[in-house]
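Weekly modeling sync, notes
Attendees: AB, CL, MP (scribe)

Item 1: holo prediction request
CL wants a bound-state model with zinc ion before deciding which constructs to order. AB pointed out that an apo prediction alone won't tell us much about the pocket. Agreed to run with the ligand included and paste results into these notes for async review.

Input as submitted:
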Amino acid sequence: MTNPDQRAWTLRLHSRLVLPRVIPMWMRQLSWRMCGWVLAGSLLVGIVSYALRPQPPFSFLRGHQPVRTDEHFNNYDLFGESAALSRTIESELTGLRFKRIIEKPWSKGRKVEYRSADESTQVFLVSEMDQARPLSIWIRSSRERSSLSRMTRDFLSVFTFTSRHGCCSSLNACIANMKQIEGAQATWAIENRRRTNEVPNDADLFGPQAYIRVKPQCPEGGSYTCGNQGEHPHCSVPWHELE
Ligand SMILES: [Zn+2]
């Protein structure tokens, strides 16, 4: 009878002395060579996929990563002097035959919309008067990224009873939120005899003791800013507008 320690020791010895003789030398060399090829291949695939990674479509966005991305839009934040940045962007967009559709001031800055000649791409520049804030660029495409993603969404919408047109339902939900906030702000101003240029804080409008119990959330992740009295609330998603 051998004890377990002895048996384990015998097995180890066996594997060291006998197995290398069982596996022929050429097979061992081949396996090392194969490992080398697999490693070199993976490295090459990594380098090629890094070089071919999708680049933003505009040169002013090269080297920037989107802060938010969705099936239909990408949002980038660019820091710097927003007027100079806007000029650079405008000249590139004009060169690409984009049309300037509208320029609108909002309570804390301005918003400009450009549209491609085939109307499939919108570019929004949202700047703020506060120069410490970034110039927010939103690229919105009406094209489906892939037919597979469209098919997946259509398939899921059948089972989840949701709309296949996510853009419109989220826009309507956001508009309903902004109307609710606008109503609360108007009531706050009357009840507290506020002047037209006074803007309420979140604590004035939202909370168990305030006008709206819980602050509404934009379905596309935008954030709300209240304007002066008589101005509509602002959603940071530029195509969510109460007009
Ligand atoms: Zn919104």
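Recorded for review: The CA atoms of residues 1 and 7 lie 10 Å apart.
Action items: CL to compare against the apo run; MP to circulate these notes.
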